[in-house]
């Protein structure tokens, strides 16, 4: 039986690219999305047309009950889980810290941090040898913002991604003996729709001057790093924070 991968926020961007590549590499994929049902269903059909097996499930990762239901739907369809990609993430309009209120901070942390934590918890319950699982891998999609800090733009988002880095290191050690590897990718500036939420759809064009390789990245380039971390070629890699930034 081929391995099962769950990717959150997978209807578009880095998540969708990861789902496509995973299916091409023989994974069965569970595409979790928040709102874009039509796009997610189209992706499932695309994967099935190519001979793969996929399922789309709606879930807001910030809502614990929805996450629990997501994992139950996955159990029903696939009966196992080998890889979790905690990809769902968001940022809000660019602003300086003194203009941010606590409600914004709570929203940003709820999706990026709480969402990743509760999905990891549900995944560990299924993968852990202690619970009768076969082990597995978790990849958290962090951001280079966790070490650059995003000053004047998104220090809240950078702090949330910093929390994801810390969780990656701690959880990797906590579950290593149970056969689970936990790593993170930290993308730099990548061509996706996320920049529109920050109020700067063309952000990649502005920021690329600070990228040593002189260009923004593509979602597929991040997906390839994620797939490598998930797979057997990375069998001795855990607690790693892998920058995918064009050298930034
Ligand atoms: P994107 O906006 O295209 O994708 C983000 C996905 O997360 C979307 O499908 C969105 O619907 C989903 N999402 C948002 N809130 C959610 C919620 N509450 N529940 C479930 N899903 C939710 O952008 P992307 O660039 O593909 O982002 C993917 C990941 O990469 C994010 O974690 C983001 O922070 C990270 N990242 C992106 C960049 C970049 O430059 N694009 C850089 C560093 C890190």
From TrEMBL:
Q: Does the keyword Oxidoreductase apply?
A: yes
Keywords from the named record: Oxidoreductase
Q: Which SUPFAM superfamilies match?
A: NAD(P)-binding Rossmann-fold domains
What is the top-level taxon of the source organism?
A: Bacteria
Q: Name one Pfam family in it.
A: adh_short_C2
Entries under InterPro entries matching the protein: KR_dom, NAD(P)-bd_dom_sf, Sc_DH/Rdtase_CS, SDR_fam
* Family affiliation: Belongs to the short-chain dehydrogenases/reductases (SDR) family.
Which protein is depicted?
SDR family oxidoreductase
| Source species of the chain | Stutzerimonas azotifigens
């Amino acid at each position: 039986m081929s391995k099962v991968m769950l990717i959150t926020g997978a209807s578009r961007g880095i998540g969708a690219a990861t789902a496509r590549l995973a299916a091409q590499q023989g994974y069965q994929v569970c595409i979790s999305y928040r709102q874009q049902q039509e796009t997610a269903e189209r992706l499932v059909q695309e994967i099935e047309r190519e001979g793969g097996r996929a399922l789309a499930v709606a879930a807001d990762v910030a809502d614990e009950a929805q996450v629990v239901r997501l994992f139950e739907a996955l159990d029903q369809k696939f009966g196992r889980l080998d890889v979790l990609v905690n990809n769902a993430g968001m940022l809000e309009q660019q602003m300086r810290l003194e203009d941010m209120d606590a409600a914004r901070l709570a929203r940003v942390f709820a999706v990026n941090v709480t969402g990743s934590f509760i999905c990891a918890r549900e995944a560990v319950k299924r993968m852990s040898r202690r619970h009768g699982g076969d082990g597995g891998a978790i990849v958290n999609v962090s951001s280079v913002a966790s070490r650059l800090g995003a000053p004047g733009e998104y220090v809240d988002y950078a702090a949330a991604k910093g929390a994801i880095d810390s969780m990656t290191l701690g959880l990797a050690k906590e579950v290593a003996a149970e056969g689970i590897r936990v790593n993170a990718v930290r993308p730099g500036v990548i061509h996706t729709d996320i920049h529109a939420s920050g109020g700067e759809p063309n952000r990649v064009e502005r920021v690329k001057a600070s990228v040593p390789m002189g260009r923004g990245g593509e979602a597929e380039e991040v997906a390839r790093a994620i797939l490598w971390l998930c797979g057997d070629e990375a069998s001795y890699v855990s607690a790693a924070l892998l920058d995918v930034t064009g050298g930034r």
